[in-house]
Amino acid sequence: MPAHTRRTFLLTAASALHAAAPASLATPHKYGKLVLEASTDPAAFDRKTVDCPFVFHYQGQFYTT
After folding, report:
1. Which 3 state secondary structure label does DSSP give 62?
2. CA separation (Å) from 46 to 33, 35, 36, 59, 64?
3. Neighbours of 39 (CB within 10 A)
4. Which residues pair with 29 in a beta bridge?
5. Domain ranges for the chain
6. In which element (H, E) is residue 58 found?
């Protein structure tokens, strides 16, 4: 029996959601590069990585964390 891990669960769920998503939810345009990038300044707080914002819709408004 195969081992079920969090990673396999998430991959399976993401695949199922992608297959079930209506085409109207697909992003029609791609920017072609990262919107947020790590800084090139070695002393900067974001020199290695940047935060990954989570956007969600609630009661008719969009929010981000």
Report:
1. strand
2. 18, 14, 10, 33, 19
3. 13
4. none
5. 25-65
6. strand 55-58
Across the chain, which has 65 residues, the per-10-residue mean pLDDT values are 72 70 63 75 81 81 83
Task: Give CA separation, 3 vs 7, 10, 11, in Å.
Answer: 11, 14, 14
**Closest listed residue to residue 34, CA positions, set 53, 15, 11:** 53
**In this structure, what token pair is assigned to residue 55?**
């956007």
pTM, two decimals, is: 0.29
Q: Where are the alpha helices (DSSP H) in the chain?
A: 6-20
pLDDT for residue 3: 64
